[in-house]
Amino acid sequence: MVDASQSDAELAAILSEARTLAVVGIKAAEAEDAFRVPKYMQDQGYEIVPVNPKLECVLGEPAFADLGEVQAAGRAVDLVNLFRASDKIARHVDEILAMTPLPRTVWMQLGIQDGASAARLRAVGIRVVQDRCI
Q1: Are strands 47-51 and 20-24 parallel, antiparallel or unpaired?
Q2: What's the sign of the alpha-carbon dihedral 60, 110, 52, 92?
Q3: pTM of the model
Q4: 84 CB-near residues (< 8 Å, 6+ apart)
Q5: Which of 92, 109, 103 is nearest to 126 (CA)?
Q6: Angle value at C-alpha 1, between 134 and 113, nearest 5 degrees
Q7: 6 band by pLDDT with thresholds 50, 70 and 90
Q8: Percent of all residues in the chain with a pLDDT value above 70, rounded to a whole number
């Protein structure tokens, strides 16, 4: 089910405002969407902050175990891109809400959605995109 709440123009505006993307669930295998999509974004000039406790480095960037580590390192992100199963999203929302500053947008990749988590994020002013490929 595609989250059709944003128009193409709104999605383009979200992406034009973002420069730094934390990619939660990034993978190191080049055949995986969770590698290819962030690689494409990096090639388009976005700074990628990899988040995966199983990786030390990906796309030439040091990987963080979780968003708390990103925060502790003083890394601010404009957008959190989630490559995690829908039933894992709520746990990441708690991490996102603990970030300072808060990211402007949380983007759940194609096939990923969690209405309750989206509502929590929107309640504090974070834009949410669900079930869309960035």
Answers
A1: parallel
A2: positive
A3: 0.94
A4: 24, 25, 92, 112
A5: 103
A6: 65
A7: confident
A8: 96
How many degrees, rounded to 5, is the angle at CA 20 between CA 119 and CA 97?
30
The pLDDT, as a whole number, for residue 4 is 56
Query: Could you count the other beta carbons within 10 Å of the beta carbon of residue 116?
Result: 10
Cα gap 101→90, rounded to integer Å? 19
CA distances from 88 to 39, 47, 53, 74, 131 (A): 23, 24, 15, 25, 14
| pLDDT tens per residue, range 37-89 | 999 999 999 999 999 999 999 999 999 999 999 999 999 999 999 999 999 99
Distance, in Å, from the CA atom of 56 to the CA atom of 58, rounded to the nearest integer, reads 7
Q: Give kind and range of the element (H or E) at residue 108.
A: strand 105-108
pLDDT digits (tens, 9 = 90+) for 32-47: 999 999 999 999 999 9
> What is the spatial distance between Cα 128 and Cα 57, in angstroms, rounded to a whole number?
27
